[in-house]
Amino acid sequence: MTSTDELRELRAAVRSFLDAHPGAADQAAWHRFAGELGVAGLAVPEEYGGAGCGLAEVAVVCEEIGRALSPLPYLPTAVLAVSAINESGDDEAKERLLPGIADGTVTATVIFPGDAELTLEGGRLSGVAPYTLEGDVVLAYVGDALVEAVPSARRPQVTMDETRPLVELTFDGVPARRIGDAGPCDRVRDLGVAALAAEQVGGAARCLESAVDYAKQRHQFGRPIGSFQAIKHKLADMLLQVESARSAAYQACAAPADESPVYAAIAGSYCTEAYLAAAGESIQIHGGIGVTWEHDAHRYFKRATSDAQLFGPPQAHRARLAQTVL
Question: Where would you find the membrane-spanning parts of this chain (predicted)?
Answer without folding.
Answer: none
